[in-house]
Write a structure and sequence with these properties.
408 residues
């Protein structure tokens, strides 16, 4: 017999049950989100038993809509555990062991365990497959040595996903393995890197003789690239696909700033020109939101493909223009930045007012076209893997990694 199709009505009924059993305005984050997971409403496209219902990711919007209507307390996945929820959970589900799925997924969703992703190195960013961090098998363990960089949230993380070179004799894409790393393991050293915002949300991570149990590998030895692709595709969809409600998110904040503008600063002509920019940005934001939602509706359960780069690219470039426009709406006041000279871990205090948040976002948006793959790399992916255009020349593709020339 065909499996009962879950309708929007069914979903709304499940949300009502969730609110009855654990209302977010009355219980803490972990209790509420734990119940959300148990009822399959965490990420509806995951299988039953792992926080989902095995249906299209587009249906998550129904859950969010119902929660918005019935609760004041709304949790933002990106703020709770951006990397854990956006990238690590799908990787655990696709490539993890039974133990990992049973013990890690729920705690990722509730935010009990924060996660990070250790791919980039000083000599390997866009070309992450060229990385040098080495893993050598010793009995029941792999011993890892090397350096990672730009590791967001490493300082807060319980778990990391680390991509390493396990076979230097193989070509670069086939000589890598992918591990679950306990960030409290001896030999893991995390040092903050300070950003233009004044905060240090990411880090350098040094790995010195770090022992990882052999059963913490995602997939098999040499399959690291396969796992990494799952992570990266989900990362791009998570960054580009964080659809807010119509008129919400960044464009909502720009509209608020526009409404509160100091009218004395403008001549009638300059006001019209700026209003024109705000309206164009609103239209672009809505087009992006609808495009992303349409893509989600059309997707079945499972991992996204290279087309996720469309939203990542569009979102990164739009966000930069949007916050630039916000600074023009604010005027000369945008030149001061209160948090700029205090170097600290993110604590959100410096972003409490609308003005402070806008200035922070203007600076933070510069990273959007770098993090999760640069805009140039997104264009390459779209050209080659979506449009089928000829690929870039890759002379090192079939060469053993150890024979590829590199700086020390
Ligand atoms: C805020 C932030 C958070 C991050 N968090 C993480 C994290 O948690 N974990 C992690 O592993 N990494 C993280 N990164 C790193 C990020 O993935 C890399 O910075 C990114 O992939 C680019 O690598 P790179 O900095 O080494 O630049 P490079 O690869 O050296 O690129 C330099 C320039 O060359 C261009 N370029 C490179 N190759 C090509 C090409 N083939 N065609 C055209 N142009 C090209 C790039 O677009 C760029 O403009 C983060 C970065 C930022 C900014």
């Amino acid at each position: 017999m065909a499996k009962h199709e879950i309708t929007e009505e069914d979903l709304r009924g499940r949300v009502a049950k969730l609110l009855e059993e654990a209302h977010p305005d009355q219980v803490d984050q972990f209790t509420f989100r734990g119940k959300q997971y148990d009822l399959g409403l965490a990420w509806v496209h995951f299988p039953e038993g792992y926080g989902g219902l095995g249906i299209s990711p587009g249906m998550q919007a129904v859950v969010m809509d119902e929660l918005h209507k019935n609760a004041k307390t709304m949790y933002d996945d990106m703020a709770i555990n951006a990397i854990g929820i956006g990238m690590c959970a799908p990787t655990v589900l696709t490539h993890g062991t039974q133990w990992m799925k049973d013990n890690l997924l729920r705690r990722i969703f509730t935010g009990e365990d924060i996660w990070c992703q250790l791919f980039s190195e000083p000599g390997a960013g866009s070309d992450v497959a060229g990385l040098s961090t080495r893993a050598v098998r010793e009995g029941d363990y792999w011993v890892v040595n090397g350096q990672k960089v730009w590791t967001s949230l490493a300082h807060m993380s319980k778990w990391g996903m680390v991509l390493v070179r396990s076979n230097p004799d193989a070509p670069k894409h086939t000589g890598m393995s992918y591990f679950l790393l306990d960030m409290q393991s001896p030999g893991v050293e995390v040092r903050p890197l300070h950003q233009i915002t004044g905060e240090a949300e990411f880090n350098e991570v040094f790995l010195n003789d770090v022992k990882i149990p052999a059963d913490r590998m995602f997939g098999r030895e040499g399959d690291g690239w396969k796992g990494a692709i799952t992570t990266l595709m989900n990362e791009r969809t998570a960054i580009g696909g964080a659809v807010s409600r119509p008129g919400g998110g960044a464009i909502g904040m720009l509209l608020d700033l526009w409404k509160a503008r100091d009218r004395k600063r403008f001549t009638p002509e300059s006001e019209i020109v700026l209003r024109d920019r705000v309206i164009k940005l609103y239209i672009e934001s809505e087009l992006l939101r609808m495009t992303v939602q349409r893509a989600k509706n059309g997707r079945k359960a499972g991992n996204p493909g290279p087309e996720g780069s469309v939203a990542k690219l569009a979102q990164a470039e739009l966000n930069k223009r949007l916050w630039e426009c916000a600074m023009d709406v604010i005027g000369a006041d945008s030149l001061t930045y209160e948090a700029g000279y205090e170097r600290r871990r993110p604590n959100f205090k410096s972003r409490e007012t609308r003005l402070a948040l806008a200035k922070y976002q203007f600076l933070r948006a510069r990273a959007n076209s770098i993090e999760g793959g640069t805009s140039e790399v997104m264009r390459n992916i779209l050209g080659e893997r979506v449009l089928g255009l000829p690929g870039e020349p890759r002379s090192d593709k079939d060469v053993p990694w150890k024979d590829i020339p590199r700086s020390a």
